[in-house]
Write a structure and sequence with these properties.
Elements (H helix, E strand, L loop, with lengths): L1 E8 L18 H12 L3 E5 H7 L8 H9 L7 E5 L18 E5 L5 H9 L3 E4 L7 H10 L4 E6 L1 H9 L5 E6 L24 E10 L2 E10 L2
Parallel strand pairs: 1-6, 1-7, 2-3, 2-6, 3-4, 4-5
Antiparallel strand pairs: 7-9, 8-9
This protein binds 1,4-dihydronicotinamide adenine dinucleotide and ligand LIKH6CAM.
1,4-dihydronicotinamide adenine dinucleotide (NAI) binds next to strand 1, strand 2, helix 2, strand 6 and helix 6.
Enzyme class: oxidoreductase
Protein name: 2,5-diamino-6-(ribosylamino)-4(3H)-pyrimidinone 5'-phosphate reductase
Organism: Halomicrobium mukohataei (strain ATCC 700874 / DSM 12286 / JCM 9738 / NCIMB 13541)
């Protein structure tokens, strides 16, 4: 499986505000690039923190891209994946609508009633890990289901865990021309943080996009 992390951050490295309310950091061209990246992926993944904060759809905006996927024999939208150890995804969340297949990655600690409720609303549930989703096992199961190209949009907790497990192949970050600030505002990689061994990146590209900069890296060494 090839895993690409893509996110947008402010000039001071924040993904959103301390209230965890989504803000538009990207401009029109960057959102279009994100739509293309989604179109090229088998699945788009977020953590449940992002579902609770943003209620994203994770589907394609451009109907032409949906038609092109169908012409290739693929579903109109990539599948959606939510890392949700305890099943906190609300049953009426947009990621559970009928626009695409949705995988819910849960841990063994998830209550059976909640899991059943998610299956009833059409989610495919994958159990991996005791208290928290074991990402290595869960992504291997997704790969077994034909997900070869995975795009991860965030948030910071999930992105850190994926780096910690050595699961990220590429990172692209749009840096917007704004400052958000706030010690409690989410950053690109939150979690515990690394203290000794740090993932090594190789810079592939620097491009001006909208009123910001798109930075692209290949991950050369896991933590
Ligand atoms: N600017 C951007 O490009 C993006 C911004 N965001 C922002 O990020 C914020 C949400 O980020 P976070 O609070 O960090 O939440 P998150 O979206 O990273 O979800 C974290 C949650 O995922 C679950 N999870 C299950 N297994 C996990 C594992 N192995 N490792 C880590 N998490 C696991 C846990 O319940 C954890 O609390 C929101 O404010 C949202 O607006 C989110 C995506 C993109
Ligand atoms: N690439 C990017 N730029 C921004 O400025 C953003 N705020 C985000 N947020 C992510 O996009 C998701 C919204 O998805 P839908 O449009 O609802 O499908 C949101 O949940 C974040 O993952 N991304």
């Amino acid at each position: 499986m090839h895993v690409v992390v893509n996110a947008a951050m402010s000039a001071d490295g924040k993904l959103s505000t301390r209230r965890r309310e989504q803000i538009e950091i990207s401009g029109t061209r960057d959102f279009d690039r994100v739509d293309e990246l989604r179109a090229e992926s088998d699945a788009v993944m977020v953590g449940v923190g992002t579902v609770l904060a943003d209620d994203p759809s994770l589907t394609l905006d451009d109907p032409e891209r949906q038609r092109a996927r169908e012409d290739r024999g693929e579903p109109a939208n990539p599948a959606r994946v939510v890392a949700d150890s305890q099943v906190r995804t609300p049953p009426d969340a947009r990621v559970l609508d009928e626009a695409a297949l949705t995988y819910l990655l849960v841990s063994q600690a998830a209550l059976t009633d909640f899991v059943t409720q998610m299956e009833d609303v059409g989610a495919t549930v994958i159990v991996a890990g005791e208290d928290r989703v074991d990402l290595v096992t869960a992504l291997a199961k997704l790969e077994g289901d034909g997900i070869d190209q995975l795009m991860v949009e965030g948030g910071g907790e999930l992105i850190f865990s994926l780096f910690e497990e050595g699961l990220v192949d590429e990172l692209s970050v749009f840096v917007g021309s704004t400052v958000i600030g706030g010690r409690d505002a989410p950053t690109l990689a939150d979690g515990e943080g690394f203290v000794e061994e740090f993932p090594a990146l190789s810079l592939d590209g620097v491009e001006r996009v909208d009123d910001g900069v798109l930075l692209s890296w290949t991950v050369t060494d896991a933590a």
